[in-house]
Amino acid sequence: MKLRSKITVGLVVLATICAVWLASGPNRARRELEQARRLLRQQGFKIDLTEFNLSTSPELSARAARIGTTTRAALTNRTRPSPFFRDVPSLLTPAGTNAAIVVWKLEKLKSYRHDDLWPELRETLNTNRAKLDDARQAALSGPIRFEPIGSPKPTPLLPYLADLKDLVTTFGVETMLALHDGSKDAAWTNLLASTCLVTAYTPEPIDISHMVRFACVAIACDTTWNALQSGDWTDAQLAELQRRWEGVDFWSGLPETAAYSRANMAGICQLERQQPLSPSMTLKEALRSPRYAWPGLRYHWRQIRYRHQGTYEDEKALLLYYRDRELELRRAVQCPTWSEMRQLPGVTNVVPFMSKNSSSMLSMMNTRQMSLNFHGEGQGLLGRAAGTETRRRLVITAIALDRYRTRHGSYPKVLQELMPELLASPPIDFMDGKPLRYRRTDDGHFVLYSVGLDCVDNGGEMRQPRRREVPYEVPSGFGFRQGPDLVWPRPASTAEVELLQQEEDRAEAEQIERAKEMQAADQWDRTARRQAKVETILATPPGLMTNEPIWRGRLLSEVLHNEKSSGTNKLTFAQMLRLKQLITGAEPEIATFELPINYDVLTNLGSLLLYIDPTPGEDSEEGCNVGQLECNRATNGNCLLVWSTFYESPGKHALQAGLVLERPMKPSDDISGPIIPFVVSNLCQFSLSSATFDHKTGVTLAARLAEPNGSYTIEINLPTGEHVKSIGGATTNGIIKVHWDLIDDRGKTCTNDSFDTVFHITLPDSGRSQTLKGP
Questions:
Q1: Cα–Cα distance, 442 to 18 (Å, whole number)
Q2: 170: buried, middle or exposed (CB in 10 Å: 19+, 13-18, 0-12)?
Q3: Fewer beta carbons below 10 Å: N end or C end of the chain?
Q4: Confidence class of residue 58 from pLDDT cuts 50, 70 and 90?
Q5: Interacting residues of 206 by C-beta distance below 8 A, sequence separation 6+
Q6: What pLDDT is attached to residue 81?
Q7: b vs e for 389-402, b when ≥16 Cβ sit within 10 Å of the residue's Cβ?
């Protein structure tokens, strides 16, 4: 009672303190906020979301709805289409220091899941033809603007941004496919649609909208590079493409993003003050659980304080913070070059927002900043804008060069020859203010490049793609980051493409080989750990089944009884699941066990398994199932378990038959027989990934010997028995690993689809030797 009285007195005192504080502290913070708002209004800064008119005309709204998700109803509609492609290769893959692969010229388009992606692209595009035709027509028909869902409230939804990027990618892929198939008109329509999605689109004053647009520009530029390699566009088509790129502005809307962020964060603070504040615990709960009362009261007090004072302090700080960011952006966009712009504060270094209050609002800002850094690949809003502006100038110059070639039969010696016929002014590199770097190449093409964000001329060298698991894998992030220089490369020669393909194949083979080595080592270690417990397993008394499952009113043992082998003798489940080895002459590589279970009945109810060294724990995650097991029908109708023993570690083991039913039966569908000892007498152990065969890379064989020191000879034969190749060697770590390049002993390349192996093994330490049929 004394403790409860103290709590009651404490609550009264706390209420008194709150009343005094609410009469003084919050009023001061509110007054300071209002003063800051008046000052910003006098200076012409927007501070409320209502000052941003993000609504669109009926015509623009209808067009936008054909391109992306623009309503809450469409957003929540689970049947709305997902992205058209999830397995798209990069549209600009370097194949040399200043060359790239022309995607549409590839006979086979490799991807993560396919050796040739062209057929699937055709099928996917044809399946979505109506929707794509409608979206394409919308992209070509005029200006593009979206109205955020939920505006003018804070943090509106922008689902159409993902749709926009998806469409730019899809139209780029359609351009590649059309060029690959020789459909010039379709290629032009898709190229123009991809271009319009970035040149006709006016982003909302929201930084992520600009970031996505910049990403789409990179995709559209890569599409344009591929398209220009066809070399047979008309001058009118090229002029139309050039006009659209010349008319786009990536800078004027950037300062407004800071203004919108300022009003948006202020709106979030205002919403926070309007939310109902519920106590963390009632007085009754506090009296019932005194030990939790004080932490609950402290938390509730912090909520009250932030609601009535902290939100005002943060709103004022945010208004001033984004005022400074807007002023920085205004100064930055006036710079004629990136080299001048990057010297200004806030351009290359992110100025964090600091608050003395810990709140969900601050966490939201940090998450938002991380998202922007991800989309900007660490370059920031202005860095991405600078790269996008540079790409714009590169593509305009490249189109003018192609128009010059169409008119004069070859590319000019210098860029000045493009003026004034095709360009009104010299093509300047936005990065350093100097002319774009240009040179003709010996193969009749050209290399055009910018020095990039570091403003250092690296000679127009493209960064080579990192080694990837699969060729032409789509790189992470938006667009391919070429390296220090931004390059409009020449098309790679056939030899360069073949060399890249060989390097990718080799990298892929190495990756696969490493994965198989890890898989083999894991399997060998796991089987060894299980085998170490074999004596304990064998010494454990068997568990007896006391409640046999019932199948359609009959005991399961009666259902599975095979009269042809057991006659009228009734067998218990333990007797039916007792393993009995049959000697067939295929030992020791193959072990065969017979069980008196009706094979024909079993196949309709479930399947038999073979457990090795069954024990609970981390080593039984695979169920302790043996590898390479077959269940066959014996001549007497019984079940035969045929097991390839060479995937298990040599030595003594514990075996157990198991029955798994397809339909659960009461009381249990987990049925297993008695455990018996069994010795694997093989002198080596393979893994499930020990033998691999590929017509391009050859054959790889791996095994682990029973002892560290050993010698071996491997015979490789055709399935008909004809000898093909002998490979010999020795090991001191117990691991055999050989690779065969498919060249036989006579120096000829084998083209067969399968081979058999025989291993002759000698272990000098123990004096044992053995000949085994391998995988």
A1: 82
A2: buried
A3: N
A4: very high
A5: 148, 158, 257, 260, 261
A6: 54
A7: bbbbbbbbbbbbbb
SS (H, E, C) 144-174: ECCCCECCCCCCCECCHHHHHHHHHHHHHHH
Nearest to residue 624, comparing CAs of 703, 738, 755, 526? Answer: 526
Indicate if the pLDDT at residue 754 is higher than 70: yes
User: Which two structure tokens, joined as six digits, stand for 232?
Assistant: 């047979």
Residues 6 or more apart whose CB falls under 8 angstroms from that of 735 comprise: 702, 703, 704, 705
Please report the domains of the chain, with CATH numbers, ordered by start residue. Answer: 2-52+274-327+339-377 (no CATH), 534-680 (no CATH), 686-773 (2.60.40.4070)
The answer to whether 202 and 256 have CB atoms below 8 angstroms apart is no
SS3 content of the chain, % helix, strand, coil (to 5): 45, 15, 40
Residue 491: its H or E element: strand 490-491
For the chain, give the mean pLDDT. 86
**638 within 8 A of 646, measured Cβ to Cβ:** no
617 CB burial (10 A radius; 0-12, 13-18, 19+): exposed
Neighbours of 65 (CB within 10 A): 16
H or E element at residue 592: strand 590-595
531-555 pLDDT, tens digit each? 899 999 899 887 766 677 778 888 8
pLDDT over 50 (residue 511): yes
Q: DSSP states of 239-252 as a string?
A: HHHHHHHHT--SST
For residue 447, name the pLDDT band (cuts at 50, 70, 90): very high
Residue 658 DSSP SS3? strand
Amino acid identity, position 656: Q
Lowest mean pLDDT among 205-209, 282-286, 623-627: 282-286
CA gap 238, 243 in Å, rounded: 9
Q: Phi-psi region for residue 628, left (φ > 0), alpha (ψ -120 to 50) or beta?
A: left
Position 624 confidence tier, pLDDT thresholds 50, 70, 90: confident
Mean pLDDT calculated for residue range 174-189: 97
